[in-house]
Design brief:
Layout: H1 3-7, H2 30-35, E1 47-51, H3 52-69, E2 72-73, H4 83-91, E3 97-99, H5 102-110, E4 115-118, H6 125-137, E5 142-147, H7 150-162, E6 169-174, H8 187-199, E7 203-209, H9 221-240, E8 252-255, H10 261-268, E9 275-278, H11 290-294, E10 310-321, E11 324-327, E12 342-346, E13 358-362, E14 367-370, E15 381-385, E16 398-402, E17 412-417
Parallel strand pairs: 1-16, 2-9, 3-4, 4-5, 5-6, 6-7, 7-8, 8-9
Antiparallel strand pairs: 1-10, 10-11, 10-15, 11-14, 12-15, 13-14, 16-17
C-alpha cells in the first residue's frame, strides 16, 4: 500500500461531518487532537468504538493460524472499508485485499493496494474500461475477478475489446450452490464457463472460487455438512480444470468467509498445485453476536478465541415505564441484521451481562432496553456488544480506537477512517 496516503489520514481536519468527533476536536487534525490525550469520557453518544488490544489479538491470531495451515489470506476489505486496517492486515502477511464492487476497488487503488481480488463479476463497460487503464498504467497491479456464466464472459470480453485493453483480466470461475447466491450451478456448467474464458483473448483463467457462507448460517451438523459438500465440489472443479490453467503461476482456489474457514482448509488440503486463498473479513473486529457463536476459533481449533473489538455506547434518554428505558442509539448507529445489541455494563456502574436486561428493538435513533430495573437510570451510559461488523463500520466515517474498553477511563489512541 501507499503508506504515505494512509499516514496522511492523520492530517485530516475534524469537524461536524464526523459524528464521533466531539466539538472540542473540531478544527484540529486527527494527529493534533489525539495528542491532547482524549478519553472515552470526552466523547458523546451514540458511539461506536474499536478496542486496540482486541484488534491486535485478532490480527495476530488469524495471521498465525493461516501461516500454520499453509494458506493465504486476502481479507475482505468491504467489512471495514478502512485503509489503515487493510494496511495492518497486509503488514501482518495478508496476500492481498478482497473487495465486493468497483467503487471499493477504486478506494483501494487510491490507497495503493497492489493485489486485489474482486469477489464478484464486473460487467459495467465503463468500469471495465477504467480497470483496463489501471492495469495498463501499473504493471505491478494484480487483479482477479469472478465469472459465473458464458454470457458474463462474452460481455466482459466485448467491453474490454472496446476499451482497447492491453493486459488480459484474470478471472476465477465461480461455483455456486442450490439456494445460494451467485455462481455456476454445478461443476459441468462451471467447466463450460472456463472453456469460454479460454476462448476470450481479453481474459485469463486464473482459478476457481466461491462462497460457502451463502449455503449455511450456523454451526449445526447439517450446516457444516452442506459446507463440506460444496467445498468438495469446488475441489472437483479445480481438478477438472487442471490442464487448462496457464503454467506461469499456481491456480487460485478461494473460499472462506469468517464462519467456516477451517472447513475450507480441511477440504482443500492436498489439492494439486493450488494457492488456497481465504477471504475472511469479519475476524479482525469479530463481534458479540453471530460470529462469536459460529467462528472456527469458538468451535475448537485449539486457538485462543477471537475477541470482540467493537462496542456501542448509548445513553439512557428516557424511562417512560418502570421496566422500559430508551437509549439514544438506533439503526443509524448500530448493526441489527444479525441480532440486536447486548447490554454489557453501565459505565462506572453495574454489570448487565447475565441479568434480565435486554434490548428488544431498535428504531432509527432509539434502542428499547427492557428489564434493567434501577441499574440504568436516565443519563447513564451503557456499553453494548454488537453483532455483525459488516453492518457496523458502514454507519461511521471515523471510529475512535480505545486502548481498552475494559479500562476505568479508556484512552482514545486512534481514529479509524472508513470509506463507504
Amino acid at each position: 500500500m501507499a503508506e504515505g496516503a494512509v499516514a496522511a489520514l492523520a492530517d485530516e481536519t475534524l469537524d461536524w461531518r464526523f459524528k464521533a468527533a466531539p466539538p472540542q476536536s473540531w478544527g484540529h487534525t486527527v494527529r493534533d487532537w489525539l495528542a491532547t490525550g482524549p478519553t472515552l469520557g470526552d466523547l458523546g453518544t451514540p458511539l461506536l468504538t474499536l478496542d486496540a488490544a482486541a484488534l491486535d489479538h485478532n490480527l495476530r491470531t488469524m495471521a498465525d493460524w493461516c501461516a500454520s495451515a499453509g494458506v493465504a489470506l486476502a481479507p475482505h476489505g468491504k467489512t471495514t472499508m478502512a485503509p489503515a486496517l487493510w494496511q495492518a492486515q497486509l503488514a501482518a502477511g495478508a496476500h492481498g485485499i478482497t473487495l465486493a464492487n468497483l467503487p471499493q476497488v477504486r478506494v483501494a487503488r487510491a490507497f495503493g493496494v497492489r493485489r486485489i481480488l474482486l469477489a464478484n463479476t464486473l460487467l459495467d463497460p465503463a468500469g471495465l474500461a477504467w480497470l483496463a487503464a489501471e492495469l495498463a498504467a501499473d504493471p505491478a497491479f494484480a487483479f482477479v475477478s469472478w465469472v459465473d456464466s458464458t454470457e458474463s464472459v462474452r460481455l466482459m470480453d466485448e467491453a474490454l475489446r472496446a476499451a482497447g485493453a492491453e493486459r488480459p483480466v484474470e478471472v476465477l470461475v465461480e461455483l455456486g450452490g442450490p439456494g445460494g447466491r451467485t455462481g455456476a450451478r454445478g461443476v459441468d456448467a462451471a467447466v463450460e464457463i472456463a472453456a469460454a474464458v479460454l476462448r476470450a483473448p481479453t481474459l485469463r483463467l486464473a482459478g476457481v472460487g466461491g462462497y460457502e457462507g451463502a449455503l449455511a448460517h450456523d454451526a449445526e451438523p447439517d450446516a457444516l455438512a452442506a459446507v463440506r459438500g460444496y467445498l468438495t465440489s469446488l475441489g472437483e472443479l479445480h481438478g477438472r480444470l487442471a490442464r487448462a490453467y496457464p503454467d506461469d503461476a499456481p491456480p487460485v482456489v478461494t473460499a472462506g468467509g469468517s464462519a467456516y474457514f477451517d472447513l475450507v482448509v480441511e477440504e482443500t488440503a492436498g489439492l494439486p498445485e493450488a494457492l488456497v486463498v481465504l477471504r475472511s473479513g469479519a475476524y479482525l473486529a469479530h463481534d458479540d453476536g453471530f460470529y462469536r457463536g459460529v467462528s472456527p476459533f469458538a468451535r475448537g481449533t485449539g486457538r485462543a478465541p477471537l475477541r470482540s473489538a467493537l462496542h456501542g455506547w448509548a445513553r439512557v434518554a428516557s424511562r417512560p415505564e418502570p421496566q422500559l428505558a430508551l437509549l439514544d442509539a438506533g439503526k443509524r448507529d448500530l448493526p441489527f441484521d444479525e441480532g440486536l445489541p447486548e447490554p454489557q455494563q453501565v459505565r462506572g456502574g453495574a454489570e448487565l451481562t447475565g441479568t434480565t436486561a435486554r434490548i428488544t428493538a431498535l428504531n432509527d435513533q432509539h434502542a428499547f432496553l427492557r428489564d434493567a430495573g434501577d441499574l440504568a437510570p436516565v443519563g447513564a451510559v451503557l456499553r453494548l456488544g454488537v453483532s455483525h461488523p459488516c453492518t457496523a463500520f458502514d454507519k461511521w466515517t471515523a471510529i475512535p480506537v480505545l486502548d481498552s474498553a475494559d479500562a476505568a477511563e479508556p484512552k482514545v489512541t486512534g481514529l479509524v477512517r472508513t470509506f463507504f
